[in-house]
């Protein structure tokens, strides 16, 4: 028996509260209390935005639902990146690269590892469709190589940067590959991405009414406004805090990615605990694809009016972590079965990434 989808009270309260916090803090020096409120408002707005995007996605169905959710999350990520780059000057030139790379590491090692570990602890062995997850990994590998690896080795411009034409090609290629993947996942071979038993998620809630979906759409837009404004407000304090603990400025990108991907992490773990590992992998790998497949084109367009260079190429340390992650992910996904061993390996790689991000 299906039940109508109702909006929880917190999702109704958070967007206006976040906007109030934005009005209270915008253009002011942040004291301790106000800083805490801004951080809570920012985290709440991100969480509520993703929730309302899911409600709208549930109403319109596939493939448009997946596109709405991915675009909403990417708008949040791009808004945070562009806001911090615009206010950070030359030292923020690598923020887009750091955030996208962090998103890849968080999704493929952190979210996947946590889902594999916790799901296997409850269910011992979990099964998934190797051809679906392997295909997603192939697209991720191609996208990250075209966008973040090649700039280190191109010769048209000095340093790990793209020329204008190269950046345009990378942006278009990323958008095309992501579009093809979404079409395959939601239309052409949708059944490939369902759990092994051929069913969807356990919760068969009826689609929300038009009024509920429109309300969620309005609240989603309010959340996005709050995210952009609060990010601009807190960005100087965030960068100062990172510098005060001796961490490199690139760690700001890690914090952004962790914040944006928190709702997906919770959803992936819940699915794994319900023995729906395929759903967890769809969330994790889909988030990685959206992060790079939509963020790079958006940043390419934003670079037209952003001043200063746009550093995209990864360093040697990051390249080693990327190769290790791709190889490990291939070995994990090729079998179609997972235990806590694979989860432990991915979480170890994620721990190494975090440790090296703080102490490079």
UniProtKB/TrEMBL annotation:
<feature type="transmembrane region" description="Helical">
    <location>
        <begin position="64"/>
        <end position="87"/>
    </location>
</feature>
<dbReference type="InterPro" id="IPR052946">
    <property type="entry name" value="Alkaline_pH_Ca-Antiporter"/>
</dbReference>
<feature type="transmembrane region" description="Helical">
    <location>
        <begin position="251"/>
        <end position="273"/>
    </location>
</feature>
<feature type="domain" description="Sodium/calcium exchanger membrane region">
    <location>
        <begin position="31"/>
        <end position="186"/>
    </location>
</feature>
<protein>
    <submittedName>
        <fullName>Ca2+:H+ antiporter</fullName>
    </submittedName>
</protein>
<dbReference type="GO" id="GO:0015385">
    <property type="term" value="F:sodium:proton antiporter activity"/>
</dbReference>
<dbReference type="Pfam" id="PF01699">
    <property type="entry name" value="Na_Ca_ex"/>
</dbReference>
<dbReference type="InterPro" id="IPR004837">
    <property type="entry name" value="NaCa_Exmemb"/>
</dbReference>
<feature type="domain" description="Sodium/calcium exchanger membrane region">
    <location>
        <begin position="216"/>
        <end position="357"/>
    </location>
</feature>
<feature type="transmembrane region" description="Helical">
    <location>
        <begin position="312"/>
        <end position="333"/>
    </location>
</feature>
<feature type="transmembrane region" description="Helical">
    <location>
        <begin position="99"/>
        <end position="118"/>
    </location>
</feature>
<feature type="transmembrane region" description="Helical">
    <location>
        <begin position="285"/>
        <end position="306"/>
    </location>
</feature>
<keyword id="KW-0812">Transmembrane</keyword>
<feature type="transmembrane region" description="Helical">
    <location>
        <begin position="213"/>
        <end position="231"/>
    </location>
</feature>
<feature type="transmembrane region" description="Helical">
    <location>
        <begin position="7"/>
        <end position="27"/>
    </location>
</feature>
<feature type="transmembrane region" description="Helical">
    <location>
        <begin position="165"/>
        <end position="184"/>
    </location>
</feature>
<dbReference type="GO" id="GO:0005886">
    <property type="term" value="C:plasma membrane"/>
</dbReference>
<dbReference type="GO" id="GO:0015386">
    <property type="term" value="F:potassium:proton antiporter activity"/>
</dbReference>
<keyword id="KW-0472">Membrane</keyword>
<feature type="transmembrane region" description="Helical">
    <location>
        <begin position="130"/>
        <end position="153"/>
    </location>
</feature>
<feature type="transmembrane region" description="Helical">
    <location>
        <begin position="33"/>
        <end position="52"/>
    </location>
</feature>
<keyword id="KW-1133">Transmembrane helix</keyword>
